[in-house]
Specification:
By secondary structure, the chain is α+β, with helices and mostly antiparallel strands. It contains 4 helices and 18 strands. It has one domain (2-284): 6-pyruvoyl tetrahydropterin synthase/QueD (Tetrahydropterin Synthase, Chain A, 2-Layer Sandwich), CATH 3.30.479. It has helices at 46-60, 113-124, 183-192, 249-263, and strands at residues 2-17, 21-35, 65-68, 73-78, 81-88, 92-98, 103-106, 132-140, 148-153, 167-177, 180-181, 196-200, 204-205, 219-226, 229-236, 240-243, 269-274, 280-284. The strands form 3 sheets. Strands 9, 10, 11, 12, 16, 17 and 18 form a 7-stranded mixed beta sheet that branches. It has a 6-stranded antiparallel beta sheet with strand order 4-5-6-15-14-13, with no helix packed on it. A 5-stranded mixed beta sheet has the order 7-3-1-2-8.
């Protein structure tokens, strides 16, 4: 028998890419289970599918940084910290120190839908009831017919997993000027934020203040302590954008609306900023 659940959950995470560096991503998860009927005449109760499988996905990859362990990634344990170093295109470098729950090592040369699918199948199947002998997973991006961007960030004030210093989203952006949608402005900001790391001004530190990792002259450094532990990051300045506020989606929407208003004081603006799929914030200026 076959059971399927479409739109089971959304994985919001970042991954290390050999060309692009840290890439924020959001993938919708569709799940198919193959197996025999249990004593309830079910393959698995839908409520259990949604609860158990989503929990496994959340614990292993959601809101983490996925690492392609087979190529150009170095891990070093230092007490409770894991120090990550990644070399990518044109001799660029990213370094991060974090608790173990902030990253997801995947035994592959690169992180893509195929390698993450294989990782999830190998992780999930052994944890399911014995009557299930095969699972299929389809990972897909949201179908967006307008402008979007990939961004990574960390939220030190968050009690949940958003506090992890490099996790991210693939997010749609909608901008209205004087009540009319503006493709020009949407394109402008989508390009400005493509593959960006958004950092809060108050989290920036001097390179010599780093405790666990080294920096480079072209890097921006940031660090903070959150409920899950201590985090620090050294990343190319050219792929960052500093906000004078936190980098929650509410603050991102407000920041964009105010920036648009400052550049065009005679216009009124509405910004609809998304955080991954089907959720976000609206700001006016």
């Amino acid at each position: 028998m076959i059971l399927f659940v479409n739109d089971l959950t959304v994985i919001d995470f970042s991954y290390l890419c050999h060309q692009r560096g840290a890439v924020g991503e959001s993938w919708i998860v569709d799940l198919t289970l193959h197996g025999s009927l249990n004593e309830e005449s079910m393959v698995l109760d839908f409520a259990l599918v949604k609860k158990q499988v989503k929990k496994i996905i959340d614990e292993h990859i959601d809101h983490k940084l996925a690492l392609p362990m087979a190529k150009n990634v170095c891990l070093e344990q230092q007490g409770e910290q894991t120090n990550v170093t990644f070399m990518y295109a044109d001799n660029k470098r990213l370094a991060m120190s974090c608790p173990a729950q902030a990253y997801c090592p995947i035994d592959a040369d690169e992180i893509n839908q195929q390698t993450v699918t294989a990782f999830l199948i190998n992780t999930i199947l052994p944890l399911l009831p014995n009557n299930i002998d095969k699972i299929e997973i389809n990972l897909r991006p949201e179908n967006i017919d307008s402008f979007y961007y990939h961004y990574s960030h960390g939220l030190k004030k968050h009690d949940g997993n958003c506090q992890r210093i490099v996790h991210g989203h693939r997010s749609k952006i909608e901008i209205f000027e004087n009540g009319m949608k503006s493709p020009r402005l949407q394109k402008q900001w989508a390009e400005a934020f493509e593959d960006i790391y958004l950092v809060s001004q108050e989290d920036i530190i001097e390179p010599d203040a780093l405790k666990f990792i080294d920096s480079s002259p072209s890097h921006l450094c940031c660090a903070y302590t959150a409920p899950q532990g201590y985090f620090e990051l050294s990343i190319e300045q050219s792929v960052t954008h500093t906000l004078p506020c936190d980098t929650t989606v509410e603050c991102i929407a407000d920041y964009l609306a105010k920036a648009l208003k400052q550049a065009n004081p005679n216009s009124d603006f509405k910004v609809v900023a998304y955080e991954g799929v089907a959720k976000g914030s609206i700001a006016y200026a």
